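Collaborator request, handled under Task 6.
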Amino acid sequence: MKKRMNKFKIAIIVFFLSLILSNISNASELQLQKLEYNVILKEDGTAEVTEKWNIWMEDTNTLFKTFEIDKQKYSGITDVTVKEIYKNGDSRNFTKINQEKYHVDRNCYYALKNSKGKFEIAWGVHAEQVTKQYEISYKIVDAVCNYLDCSEFYWQFISTESAIPAKQVIGTITLPKPVSNKEDLKVWAHGPLNGNITIVSNDTVKFEIEKLGKNTMLEARIVTPTNIFANNQNTKNQNKSQSILLQEQKWADEANAKREKLIEKIEFIKRAMIVGLIISNIIGIILCVKVCKKIKKYRKELKENPIFKPEMEIDYFRDIPDEKETPARSRFFVLL
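Structure tokens returned to the collaborator:
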């Protein structure tokens, strides 16, 4: 009875282990080869956003993109479309559904407030070990806020909840019209220290980052004169320019401090590697000198102690070499 119970327990353990290993092997894997944003800001404060995903997928059924709902930063997201871009340049528009699903049907998508209270865009891909391209477009209503002394576009493109790493993220933000003085255009980016944001012209800003890890935030902030968004109805009766500058300066100082610490660590590692290399070379030279001395010593001993050859050639036998002798007689002679 005990043996049967032991076999039964072993069978259960093996069954559950196989399930665990199966789940691990079937777990989906995602990596964005390239993620590109194109943001066009309108005079009424609306932001028209297009995202191009070049993504590698393994055993993936559905892709998700979520937004925190924050009425203080924007009023809503509308006009969502999703399509797949093929290698030859053709595309397929996905069909919109109005139901939240964990597994979205192939070539379908939804864009709505999900059960967790977030705005979510999800589309069915049903892919196994393949790289595909998708284009997601949407409008952010009231993305720009007009203050008494400036206008501000402050948007988080990737949140810390994103579980998809990216090899490269690039983006272009275009103003509705150029600023008259380039110095009146202020830009900042928040995220990893290796990212860059650049004012390309009086109406264009670009940002870029290489190797963005999962659960890593990326956001951009643009401040302009209020006349750039003359038709914007999203206004606040307060000055904001000075507080923005102070806040960004504080964050810049913190980022610079982190960067300096990182540089110090890199320099320490470099110095340690150089010292280690020098020490290893010294040890190697010492060992070489010792080996050379040993070789010289052994050569000298060989010269001083030549190998002597015997004057007579004598055959040595362990047993009596007579095939006709009996074992008893052979033993007798050996005992003698």
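The cover message to the collaborator said: "The chain has a mean pLDDT of 84. The CA atoms of residues 174 and 204 lie 5 Å apart. Please let us know whether this matches your experimental observations."
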